[in-house]
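U., I forgot to send this yesterday:
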Amino acid sequence: MDNQSSQTTLDHSRQTAVFERLRGGILAGTLAPGVRLPASRHLAEELGVARQTVVLAYERLAAEGYVRARMGSGTYVATDLPDAAPLPARAAAGTAQVLSRRGAAIAATPMSALSPGGPEITLLAPGVPANDMFPAAAWARETARVLRALPTQYLGYPDPQGLPELRSEIAAHLAATRGLIADPGQIVVTTGTQQALRVAADLVLDPGEPAWVEEPGYIAGRGALIASGVVPVPVPSDEDGLDVAAGIRLAATARLALIAPSHATPLGGALTIGRRIALLDWAAQAGVWVLEDDCDSEFRWSGKPLPPLAALDATHGATGRVIYCGTFSKTLAPALRLGFAVMPAPLTAAFVRVRALTDRGPATLQQAVLAAFMRAGLLAPHIRRMRTEYARRRIALLEALRRYCAQATPLAAPGGLHLVVTLAPGSHEEQIARAARERGLAVAPLGAYFSGTPAMCGLVLGFATCPVALAGDAARRLAAAIRAG
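Result:
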């Protein structure tokens, strides 16, 4: 091993040691939630290591949810630690840790920006559809029809690719609503978007390989990559979507880019045509994959509906580098656990095999009911009703915030089921989010969507779960939480 390689290994070892020391203190409670960590320069001097070693350890702690960096203020121990933060607890004194390093990393990865535990609260929860709008009567009728017929093949193990009749309905739906022509033979029914992202990452990346993620971005999507052992590379995302040029500068050798081109989470930026073409050109030239998350594109509040990146790929060189992922969680209900992926032809068979090894396939009866629901022409009018009602709820919440919660300044929300409000510099958004939860509001701190230092201070509010009649009360409760935080 040459001197440079030896030095790199030593630096990585020191960085890991600093990370483990700080994480151990956080888990043991020695470093209590909300405590400010020493400045990187001071801690480096104390430990006798390079400042960059401490900086990288802090960044890793932030990426895994143990600390939060506040612009101009410092780095603080997170008040809401990752869901499985107490994992280092041992079965008995002196025994080995129960989980592997990889298992512990996965278990410590947050799924969302909302605080775990306690009773479920949905009012103002970001990214959550309105359960009160689920078409229960129509769904029950289609369920009864399916159960009356009940072909015997529905009772066996499911087709790991998904029910053929559902895949055909999905293809027709995509062609009519998204302008995406998809072969049912290249559609795989998944257990929501989350499984599609995870299986795709398992399929095209090896552990330790880099992948672009939007910064700020979709927390659970980033988590799916981490669960596959992939190294997420945060790429700045703004009102024009992911900055492709920045991504190439940061990690030109990345093997995959996870992106929501129609509506980035949480800021809502839509990828411009110039950046779309640049992304597809990079993917084609580098031979890498683009993982398109199109989970809530049905809901757009300003500007024209944007076609999927996969549809543009079909006309711009037809490189076949885009894996398109969609879901019925936002249009119907998350509890259905039904999503889908449109795969490039060379990947389809392998994708089906990987998901078969994971869970065999989603429940056939649930798929059959959804296929019948779509075949009866019930999905499209249901989405139109939701779009109309969500537009009313969005306007009502914006007006209520203007009247009762001037401390929160809404940013433009061109699409999706949530909006972002900025707070005064120096506001403690995590404390405000906790105070809001105590008042029955499920708002999320904006900083949780950043893997590094947040570029702004704010909250993420879901308007889909806030009926018009509750908008004023919700805004007043949020104002009280901001004052309390």
